[in-house]
Amino acid sequence: MDPHEAYSELIRRTRDLSYLASTSSLLGWDEQTFMPEGGAFHRSAQMGLLAGLHHERATDPKLGELLAVVESSDLVAEPTSPAAVNARELRRSYNRRVRLPRTLVEDLARTTSLAQPEWVAARTTCDFVRFRPWLEKIIQLKRDESACLATETPIAGKPAEAHSSHKKAPAPAPPARSPYDPLLDDYEPGANSQELATLFHALRSELVPLVATISERCRRLNHGGASTGSNQPPGGARSAILTRFFPRARQQVFGEAAAAAAGFDFKRGRLDVTAHPFCSGIGTGDCRITTRYDEHNFSDAFFGILHEVGHGLYEQGLDPEHYGTPMGEAVSLGIHESQSRLWENAVARSRPFWTYWFPMARRIFHEALSDVSLDAFHTAVNHVGPSLIRVQADELTYNLHIIVRFELEQALLSGDLAVADLPAAWNQKYEEVLGLKPGNDAEGCLQDIHWSAGLIGYFPTYTLGNLYAAQLFAKAETELGGLEEAFAHGDYESLLAWLRQKVHCEGQRRRPAELIEHITGNKPDHRPLIASLKRKYSELYGT
Amino acid sequence: MDPHEAYSELIRRTRDLSYLASTSSLLGWDEQTFMPEGGAFHRSAQMGLLAGLHHERATDPKLGELLAVVESSDLVAEPTSPAAVNARELRRSYNRRVRLPRTLVEDLARTTSLAQPEWVAARTTCDFVRFRPWLEKIIQLKRDESACLATETPIAGKPAEAHSSHKKAPAPAPPARSPYDPLLDDYEPGANSQELATLFHALRSELVPLVATISERCRRLNHGGASTGSNQPPGGARSAILTRFFPRARQQVFGEAAAAAAGFDFKRGRLDVTAHPFCSGIGTGDCRITTRYDEHNFSDAFFGILHEVGHGLYEQGLDPEHYGTPMGEAVSLGIHESQSRLWENAVARSRPFWTYWFPMARRIFHEALSDVSLDAFHTAVNHVGPSLIRVQADELTYNLHIIVRFELEQALLSGDLAVADLPAAWNQKYEEVLGLKPGNDAEGCLQDIHWSAGLIGYFPTYTLGNLYAAQLFAKAETELGGLEEAFAHGDYESLLAWLRQKVHCEGQRRRPAELIEHITGNKPDHRPLIASLKRKYSELYGT
């Protein structure tokens, strides 16, 4: 078969798979937003059918054959050309898929589906024992998955090395990998647990003392420190400003205005309400983000919207010409999270951001904010304090929550930690890292949905996102200059254009770590994040 | 193959086809309600892929083989058993599908898709000449479709008669059919144009003089007749009450209350806003209806909602056990329309309905209705007068609009009327039947979307729905008694239960005309409709 024909057919089939997957995405979005409760059973049948059709087509040996033809041709000569990138990444996902026995895939789907309500019930009643057998089964299945993915058995349709006209020197044997790595690799291609552990260790060493200093300052300031507003609630914490009454309709107007100003295109997207906020890139020209409103918590919806806007800008910035192929898709969860964190934290929690938006906020939320100064408001949205719940954590302590999970899930997978011993280990780590001990397992090891859904290896991508965000933002500042000045005028155009060009349009041309190095000149690194946190908090609290 | 196994496999495949079709329905609903405008291109690609997958599976020869096994077995011995019904109707749709060459199906899809914006543009500019070549092409394709459907060539997988253990005496040769019939049959299985023409002729003979009498009375009453309200706009028509200001949010509250009271289950359904109202039964437990609000037209949304509620109640009343198979699906467009018309007209335009709801309407729309009496309001919602636009027509003149279209589309298809001569023929018929002449083609032959979408044979199902509705409602009154009394208390339970049992739960056990005869003891008949209209309008105007 002619390689060009093979490539065209490969891309045609890949696009069709993307249309199918994007149909499931829309069904999923609808399920979270507008589906009447009576539609749940029917929806699961639709989703099951679509998943089956997708699996059938995504593991069709014909795909492997087409890939083999392309891989043995000149089309892949230039490794960062679209054809080479697509072939490389399609091979990667094809191999992953065909290595997983259908029985295992089905067992995982069934088990995690059944485990969901058990986890909800266990969390509600703070009853870890109820969830324990489910987690044991899930950990075992994930071990099996890891083992299947780690096999180097030949894949049907994979070209023998000798056929390749672009044979390279044989790659050195990969280092002995942890069973965690093939799972991590699903979310963050090319990452490995050893490098992550080194990186996270360095981050932790810096964060722990920094958190101690800042949260002490915060605590003192909130209780009897100098008041910056004329009429602060007596004795109230400064962050209590944000728990005043912020009417929902006005939160929506204000949040949508900020989202649009950041560049989220509402002609090619929507913002709706869901219990758990998310961003779903349905397809070219259709990206849907969600939030939730709490009338006594300004931060929840506002920074939640800016976070999802970051994800949404990435989706809206992908190259439509390459839609449905790796060249038109996001690189990894970590890079995706870097975009959300960059907009949520580096932009929307910055002083110049609020120089522009606070006067408008004070007009819109006049009852809540008329007696509040810009200083007080900016301090409030950057309040720091150790807490037990990850999703409520501040910018400074957030990564410590992730590091705890990263260490524990590796130990669970390797067998170093028995599931039965998880609550004790969790509580001990929280005390050690954050200085707090959960009162029960609902605010301890049962708080997150991830493990019950079989998502092992997902957590570290949150911290990678924070690290990448700081590296990218520092580089953007250096290259563009004047970002703070622009933010103070409500202008994010040059930042967005830079992200579009450096990250969004690039699709999966490079793996995440390579992309970061390509853009910033440095490998993934904890220092830019630490530097930016130190700078921000020293300005806020004079540490 | 064992017939029971064959039947199970047939049903499994049929259900999967329904899940796939219902996925397209959800995508279609989303497109009309919430999809951002930028998502249109992506959506068309998704829809195209799903249509292709559906076609591929629905014409799989394996389906024909499975059907043949079932058809030759004892499973179909009892013709109204679920298995026999499913086999009969699946055979019908399978044969229709495989008789249409893929090239024709694609050509029709492409042509009607391209014709849509041309029709919109032609209607906007009142320029029939622009639309003419598109309609010519569509009529030609529909002639081709009709010819393919009319062939009696053997279908692969259809059992030879000799194999059947339930061989009947050979059926008499069918009467020579009009080319219109195979198209009509798609919407109203078993209907034929000759019988419809007879029925519609009888209806028209009664309607024309009735309309003349009533609209003259209406006209007189509106101009100088006794005023029932204390503060009617001077010289204004009595129906002008309904064009006062009805705030949208309150229309929604009131409409939803009436919908829920009628039995529409909002836990298994939704009501949203679209440019063109519709009802989409996504699947068991998930039925979505839509409406549009005009703050200066009470009737548009309110009776629109009750109309869609009628469709929705049918969808919500289908037997979930038979979901996705003919036994769990609506019989025909005509029967579907009978449900919407029954709730819209026989229920919601009745005097006892407003005995209950008018006091609430007067509280909710107090500015608009405080000076209006129940009599005046009830008269206003039953205003009669010839008009040019079908979708704005009243209950009495509506069917005349349909009869015009029914006659014209037959003439177009047979070639008796050239497309070029359509505007003149349309205008002449409107003058003859309704006594009005369109000022231009936008309010004439370009007003409806149907022909541009290739829907030839669809219009008569609207009038069939009106006839069936009157027959069913008369029967329900006879069997149940006390319906008016119940309506006056806002109680529709016994009527709904009766419809559930007689119509909704029956699925496609019987073809439409047989169903009507089975329930009412009479074939489709124009007399119950005429009788109910005469009774209503003589009460209103003392004719």
Spell out the blueprint of helices and strands.
Two copies of one chain form a homodimer.
Chain A lengths: L2 H31 L6 H19 L2 H11 L10 H18 L2 H23 L3 H23 L30 H7 L5 H30 L25 H15 L6 E5 L5 E5 L2 E6 L6 H20 L15 H15 L3 H14 L1 H4 L4 H7 L17 H17 L7 H13 L25 H21 L2 H5 L5 H10 L9 H9 L6 H15 L2
Parallel strand pairs in A: 1-3
Antiparallel strand pairs in A: 2-3
Helix pairs in contact in A: 1-2, 1-3, 3-4, 5-6, 8-15, 8-21, 9-10, 10-11, 11-17, 15-16, 15-17, 17-21
Question: Which descriptors would you attach to this protein?
Answer:
21 helices; three-stranded mixed β-sheet; homodimer; mainly alpha
Q: Could you characterize the architecture of this molecule?
A:
- The structure is a homodimer of 543-residue chains.
- Chain A is globular.
- Chain A has 21 helices and 3 strands.
- A 3-stranded mixed sheet of chain A has the order 1-3-2, with helices on both faces.
- In chain A, helix 3 (61-71) packs antiparallel against helix 4 and helix 11 (333-347) packs across helix 17 (460-480).
- Chain A has a domain at 1-99.
- By secondary structure, chain A is mainly α.
- Chain A binds chain B through residues 16, 19-20, 22-23, 26-27, 30, 34-43, 45-46, 49-50, 53, 265-270, 272, 282-286, 323, and chain B through 16, 19-20, 22-23, 26-27, 30, 34-43, 45-46, 49-50, 53, 265-270, 272, 282-286, 323.
Task: Compose a concise summary of this entry.
The structure is a homodimer of 543-residue chains. Chain A is an all-alpha fold and 543 residues long.
